[in-house]
Amino acid sequence: MKVADLPAGAVARRLRHGGLDLRLGPFIARIESPIPAVTEGITQLWAEAAVVERGFADFHVRLAPPAGLRRWFRPQVLFEFDGAAPFLPLPREQAFAFLEWGLNWCVANHAHQYLVIHAAAVERHGGVAILPAPPGSGKSTLCAGLIARGWRLLSDELTLVSLATGKVAPLPRPVSLKNESIEVIRRFAPDAVLSAPCHDTTKGNVAHMRPPATSTARDGEEAAAAWILFPRFRAGAPLELGERSRARTFMAVVENGFNYHVLGGDGFDAVATLVDRCGCFDLTYGDLTEAVATMDRLAQEQQ
Amino acid sequence: MNQNSPPTSADAPTPGEGRRSFLKRVAATTPILLTVAGRPAWATTCSISGMLSGNASQPGAEVQCQGLTPGYWRNHPEAWPTSFSPGTCKKRNHGGKCKKWRNDGTSFADGVFGDTDYDGKSMMRVLILGGNDDRYQLGAHAVAAVLNAARFSVQTFGYNVSEIQSMYALRYLSDPEGLKEDLQSLNERG
Amino acid sequence: MASASVIHGWTVPPGVRWRAWEGEVVAFHPGSGDTHLLAPIAGALLEAVASGITSKEALLRHVAHHLDLPSDDALAAIVEEALATLVRRGLLSEDPL
């Protein structure tokens, strides 16, 4: 059963009382929240997510107004994980984004059977392209563009590489888009489902794009890594695809690793195996259509 | 966090350059090109916060994990935790910012570590040293790290003051560059 | 530091891991958790020591041959610095033979 299959009002009811249990790739998250924005976000952007019957959950999270006297002028929301609050509160209108962000944190800290990399992962013809990138490099825009053109989304933010199999495990969740990217994707993929932008005073607007139903439906299917590709968006720039040395790719993956330091020598071995298997590239692009076409060609060539 | 710089000309021979001269040129570089420092497991909480922060906090509100740079502490003497003094100002510029500090603030010896070569300078005076007098900018980052440890809780910054002092004492001679990189990665998480 | 009258050799301490691709070497030090990208000579030295070459003379010869460089005083000085750096970072261990 998917979220979209629940009867009207059931999402809000379960979130307010007892929690809504959802499958999150390899994990089960129990989510509780009285905040309407969370209900709306889940209803719209997690429509295809699988609802699980109440039982064991990997993560218990709650988004609610902070307890105690309200000292702040604007209403706030607090993220709680297993009863503790690891982060300071944010403005209440950011509650859904806070849920997304907080769940990423939960996975990154509690998924040590995987090497967790700060990267997007998308799959075509059986091969996964891993796109590590710091914020602002255009990773999410490229990711959104690719999944709008037939690539499967494994993850927008956290790439999970199984230590046991070496394959990438899916964690398909809404793709976060900022500022100009929101418009770019609206034009590139008019049929894509986007949340209403959340206005954030220091970083601008943030919106989330719902992953394609097929990506969510296949969230149990691991796939083999084939490329590690570093995107860089430069407005007006001609497309450039260049090879990056494996050793330098290795260091960049380590820099973007969330739990590399926890894994010790096993982390080193996992990155080495990954780099061994993948073609390693830098991709500079100014036009999303061109970038998607280049990646399509790359995927075709490896067939 | 270290920068993984894009491949430079040191990584490939220039056109017409023979292999021998290329290697000789490369041989002149430092033996280790790049280091990603290990971190204790709990410190990943704060670095992850920073990396995942798709939505930023409101101005005035803090994110949970913090570290402030040497530049910040230099420009905000009023923010120094009460157990450390920046000293008094000898000369201000038109905007009110201090141009010249007297050497009467908490000494580097008291605040960070006593057995180093900073000529009895105060912490503030070490913060404003240039590269020639403060190799790798280690002194500046050590001062910033101590102030950060005093300003923020252990959960937020990751270390308390005596841990930073011990870290400095143990490594400043044997591995000043590595120590500076580690302190820098802690300080640059605002 | 080594004194002139004692001969030293180098070994790779247990737990250190490394990999090489196209002449570039990455190495991991378990105690500190540090991961390093080594310059060509340092990388060649680590690989050489790992393969069982332990004395300074043999390491110098190996590097000169492997990287096609003249085995002169300049190279010897570079090799000495690289070995000292690798020891400082815990990637090599320096022991009296």
Written description of the protein model:
- The complex is a heterotrimer of chains A (303), B (190) and C (97).
- Chain A has 10 helices and 16 strands.
- Chain A is of the alpha+beta class and 303 residues long.
- Chain A has 2 domains: 107 residues, no CATH class; 188 residues, no CATH class.
- In chain A, strands 6, 7, 8, 9, 10, 14, 15 and 16 form an 8-stranded mixed β-sheet that branches.
- Chain B is 39% helix and 7% strand.
- Chain B has a two-stranded antiparallel ribbon with strand order 2-3.
- In chain B, helix 6 runs antiparallel to helix 8.
- Chain C is of the alpha+beta class.
- Chain C has one domain.
- Helix content of chain C is 39%, strand content 25%.
- In chain C, the strands form 2 sheets. In chain C, strands 2-3-4 form a 3-stranded antiparallel β-sheet. Chain C has a two-stranded antiparallel sheet with strand order 1-5.
- In chain C, strand 2 and strand 3 form a beta hairpin.
- Classes of the chains: A alpha+beta (303), B mainly alpha (190), C alpha+beta (97).
- Chains in contact: A-B, A-C, B-C.
- The interface between A and B is medium-sized, with 40 and 29 residues.
Put the structure in a nutshell:
Chain B is mainly alpha-helical and about 190 residues long. Chain B has 9 helices and 3 strands, in the order αβααββαααααα.
Features:
heterotrimer; B: 190 residues; mainly alpha; 9 helices; 7% strand; globular; C: 97 residues; alpha+beta; three-stranded antiparallel beta sheet; 5 strands; 39% helix
Strand order in the sheet with the most strands of chain B: 2-3
Largest sheet of chain B: 2 strands, antiparallel
Largest sheet of chain C: 3 strands, antiparallel
Query: How many domains of chain C?
Result: 1
Unreliable spans of chain B are 1-10, 41-64
**Reading side by side through the largest sheet of chain C, how are the strands ordered?**
2-3-4
**Most residues in contact, chain pair and counts:** A-B, 40 and 29 residues
Write the layout of secondary structure elements.
The complex is a heterotrimer of chains A (303), B (190) and C (97).
Chain A: H1 10-16, E1 20-24, E2 27-32, H2 36-45, E3 59-64, E4 76-81, E5 90-91, H3 95-109, E6 114-124, E7 127-132, H4 139-147, E8 152-155, E9 158-162, E10 168-169, E11 175-178, H5 180-188, E12 198-200, E13 204-209, H6 213-217, E14 224-233, E15 240-243, H7 246-255, H8 260-263, H9 265-277, E16 279-285, H10 288-301
Parallel strand pairs in A: 2-3, 7-14, 14-16
Antiparallel strand pairs in A: 1-2, 3-4, 4-5, 6-7, 6-8, 6-9, 9-10, 11-13, 12-13, 15-16
Helix pairs in contact in A: 4-5, 4-10, 7-9
Chain B: H1 19-27, E1 32-36, H2 44-52, H3 70-75, E2 89-92, E3 98-101, H4 108-111, H5 123-127, H6 138-151, H7 154-157, H8 161-171, H9 176-187
Antiparallel strand pairs in B: 2-3
Chain C: E1 8-11, E2 17-21, E3 24-29, E4 34-38, H1 40-50, H2 56-66, H3 73-88, E5 93-96
Antiparallel strand pairs in C: 1-5, 2-3, 3-4
